[in-house]
Write a structure and sequence with these properties.
The structure is a single chain. By secondary structure, the chain is an alpha/beta fold. The protein is built from eleven helices and seven strands. The N and C termini lie far apart (53 Å).
Length: 275
């Protein structure tokens, strides 16, 4: 009897460990959002909505010499040639395949695996982006891509863009670290473009693709978005990215030391209208 009870106890313990391990393996916070990006028709509708609207505004912006979408733009800019600026990842090209890999591998973002993914040059175009950039090119509007991909993998990024049909000119891809002073903050790179071009439109998936918003609170971010309420959908076009970004970093207090503490902070941020 004692042996039988011991065997049952060991089986229960083994089952409990396996269940816990399995729960841990699949507790990836981007599973649902990655599935949405890869399967939802609504997502494609949103990206088409943004890029189709931008295409309609291109000629309006081109003909209005006072039109500028850049906070870094300084007078006089009226006679400068026109340009648009796009972020790349989750704005013009889709990396949900990398997100899927780290979920299936039960790992997470890592700069080594990320750069290896970039070297594969297998990202796909986000719906509407190729058509928008080519229309701009046809109208004589320069197209710049300001990306926080590392400069060391820029050749693979350019290869990926060209194979997808994006217009890529010499110097149009501006990577993180590509020149002295080019950091992950994109202000300096936008300023370089604005010094030589009249910037008609900005496209991104993060508030920092439009205005400096590093290290500020959720409330400050929302107020900043409201300040430029009239620019969204005319000069600035934001694409949805529920997987990562500065919105996520703003969730945390900075005191979290474990995934469990980060999860608790996420839960604490939820609002359900109950007292």
């Amino acid at each position: 009897m004692k042996i039988r009870l011991l065997t049952v106890a060991l089986l229960l313990l083994f089952t409990s460990c396996q269940t816990s391990r399995q729960a841990a393996d699949y507790s990836n916070n981007t599973l649902s959002s990655t599935l949405w990006l890869q399967t939802a028709a609504e997502y494609e509708a949103m990206t088409l909505q943004a890029y189709n609207t931008a295409r309609m505004f291109l000629t309006v912006a081109l003909e209005d010499s006072t039109w500028s979408a850049s906070l870094e733009q300084e007078d006089p800019y009226f006679d400068k040639p026109p340009a648009i600026i796009l972020d790349l990842d989750e704005t013009a090209i889709d990396n949900s395949f990398y997100e899927a890999r780290v979920i299936l591998d039960k790992s997470g973002f890592d700069s080594v695996t990320w750069n290896n993914w970039v070297r594969e040059a297998e990202a796909e175009a986000i719906k509407g982006a190729v058509e928008l950039t080519n229309r701009a090119d046809e109208l004589g509007i320069a197209v710049f891509y300001i990306t926080n991909r590392d400069a060391e993998v820029q050749p693979y990024t350019e290869q990926n863009l060209l194979e997808l049909g994006f217009p890529v000119a010499e110097g149009s891809v501006m990577s993180n670290g590509g020149q002295p002073g080019w950091t992950s903050a994109k202000t300096e790179r936008r300023k370089v473009v604005a010094e030589n071009y009249r910037v008609l439109m900005l496209f991104g998936d993060d508030l920092n693709d439009f205005v400096p918003a590093r290290g500020i609170s959720i409330e400050e971010r929302k107020k900043l978005a409201e300040v430029y309420a009239d620019w969204w959908g005319a000069k600035w076009f934001v694409l949805p990215n529920p997987n990562y970004g500065s919105w996520e970093r703003a969730l945390y207090t900075g005191n979290e030391e474990s995934e469990a503490e980060m999860q608790q902070t996420r839960l604490n941020r939820l609002k359900d209208k109950r007292n």
